């Protein structure tokens, strides 16, 4: 059974989706830790309710980004996790951190990558005038929102959509795509070949 550590900065709805996936048996793993940079994050309350240990690494308590990243790497290593899920974690990981856990970190992004990377993806999509947006689950590499793609879910953009209304519809797909991706990882059904992710057939008893 794989150990999963989740990194989150805010409400933690994607974190909750992973909790629910584990509880339902969809995800054959255990959540060993929540790591957050925000001592006020609601995701902490979700973790405590589910009996999941919490590590708070408050960014504001560090002198600079280098010190913070070093502390984060130490905490991540101490978890002994097989998988780190960035579920609304609002800080970019530095290259040293990414290299320390190759193939062991995935991220959820609220757009169909490679379009609309970075912050405010919903606003970017609406302003550009695309008709379809969605979400992407991908492995993390040294470039922002760039790693090999595991799953994508499309969501149509309506003429009267606002950032909030689009975000709400995409979020529902994020939960499902993230659950599926974590489940596949935990069953060793993902392989990266030439930056393409292949989904293997389920193992038979």
Topology overview:
Layout: E1 2-7, H1 13-24, E2 29-36, H2 42-50, E3 54-56, H3 65-79, E4 83-86, H4 95-100, E5 105-109, H5 121-128, E6 132-139, E7 149-156, H6 163-186, E8 190-193, E9 196-199
Parallel strand pairs: 1-2, 1-4, 2-3, 4-5
Antiparallel strand pairs: 5-6, 6-7, 8-9
In short:
The protein is of the alpha/beta class. It has helices at residues 13-24, 42-50, 65-79, 95-100, 121-128, 163-186, and strands at 2-7, 29-36, 54-56, 83-86, 105-109, 132-139, 149-156, 190-193, 196-199.
What do you see in this structure?
The chain has helices spanning 13-24, 42-50, 65-79, 95-100, 121-128, 163-186, and strands at 2-7, 29-36, 54-56, 83-86, 105-109, 132-139, 149-156, 190-193, 196-199. The protein has 205 residues and is of the alpha/beta class. The strands form 2 sheets. The protein has a 7-stranded mixed β-sheet with strand order 3-2-1-4-5-6-7, sandwiched between helices. It has a two-stranded antiparallel ribbon with strand order 8-9. Helix 4 (95-100) links the parallel strand 4 (83-86) and strand 5. The protein is globular. The two termini are 16 Å apart. The relative contact order is 0.15. The model has no long low-confidence stretch (mean pLDDT 96).
């Amino acid at each position: 059974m794989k150990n999963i550590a989740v990194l989150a900065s805010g409400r933690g709805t994607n974190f909750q989706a992973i909790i629910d996936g584990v509880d339902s048996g969809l995800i054959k793993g255990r959540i060993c830790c929540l790591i957050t940079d925000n001592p006020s994050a609601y995701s902490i309350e979700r973790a405590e309710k589910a009996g999941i240990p919490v590590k708070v690494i408050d960014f504001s308590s560090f002198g600079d980004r280098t010190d913070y990243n070093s502390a984060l790497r130490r905490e991540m290593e101490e978890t002994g996790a097989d998988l780190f899920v960035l579920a609304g974690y609002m800080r970019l990981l530095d290259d040293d951190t990414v290299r320390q856990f190759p193939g062991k970190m995935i991220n959820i992004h609220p757009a169909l990558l490679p379009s609309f990377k970075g912050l405010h993806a919903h606003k970017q999509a609406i302003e550009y005038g695309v008709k379809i947006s969605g979400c992407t689950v991908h492995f993390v590499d040294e470039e922002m929102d760039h790693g090999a793609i595991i799953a994508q879910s499309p969501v149509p953009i309506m003429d009267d959509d606002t950032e909030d209304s689009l975000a709400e519809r995409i979020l529902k797909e994020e939960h499902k795509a993230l659950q599926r991706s974590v489940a596949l990882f935990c069953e060793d059904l993902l392989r990266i070949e030439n930056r393409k992710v292949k989904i293997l057939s389920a193992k038979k008893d």
